[in-house]
Amino acid sequence: MWSHLSRQTGGIGTRGPGETQLEVDRRRVQDRIARLERELTEVRKHRGIQREGRLRHNWPFISLVGYTNAGKSSLLNRLTGATVEARDRLFETLDPTTRQLTLPNHQKVLLTDTVGLIRKLPHTLIESFKATLEEVQLANLLLHVVDLSHPRHAEQIEAVDAVLGELGAEGKQTIMVFNKCDLVTDPEIVQANLARHPGSVAVSARTGDGMAQLIEELEIRLAAWRMQGRFVIPLTEQALLAEIHRVGHVLDLKYGEASAMITAHIPPELIGRLSKYDAGSPQK
User: What CATH number was assigned to the domain covering residues 26-222?
Assistant: First the structure.
C-alpha cells in the first residue's frame, strides 16, 4: 500500500539513491518555494518603480482584495476593460496588475488586483507575499470582493478580514462587493448580506449586473478627493495630523519649529475642525 514511499534508486531527474517519494515531493515543494521567492524579489523591485509613478499622478489608489477565486481579476477586467487572465487557481495573481479607471465625474483612479487570500494564511506566506500584499496597505480604498455563491462565503469574509488585520490594514475604508450574484438562487441571501454591510454592492463581473451601482458607490466614497485644503497645524495637534493622514490624502507636508504646513485632500467632515488652521480655502 505504501510502496510509493519506499526507498528506491532512480535515473537522472527522478529520485536519487535511496530517496523516498515523500522526500522527492518535499524537494519539489522546496524548489517551487525557492522559485517563487526569486520571482517575488523581482516583483518587489517592479512594484517599487510602478508605485513611484502612481504617486506622481496623485490619483486615488484602490486595491481589490478577497478570498482566492472570488473574481477579483474578472471584476478588474469588467471595470476597466482590461484583459487580465482570470483562472481558478490558488495564488494565480502574483504580480498585482494596476489599471486606470475614469469615473463619470472625471475622477481618475487606479485599481490594483492582488493575490487571493486563504484561511489561516501562514506567517511565512504573509512574509513571502508582502511584495504583493503591501499594495493593500498603501490603498486609499479597498474593494473586498466576495464570491456570494460560495456556501462558506461568510467564513471567507472572516478569513480575509483576519489577514488584513495581520497586515495592519484593518479599519481601512472598504466597499464590500458581493460578486457572482447571478449564481445565487436565493435572492434573500443577497439582500441579507447587503443589509449586513451598509454601502455594499451586489454585482456579477461575468454579466456586468450591478456595475453602475458600484461606480456610483466609488464616486461617493472618493468625494473627499475632490476637496483640497492647506492648513498650518500646531505640532501639539498630533492626533489631528494623524487623522488627516488616515482619512485624507496628503499632497505636501512641511514641518516648522512649532507647526506643520499641510496640503491635503480631505473629507468634508474634517473641514469644520480644520477651519481655524486654514491657510487657504479648500477648493474643488
Answer: 3.40.50.300
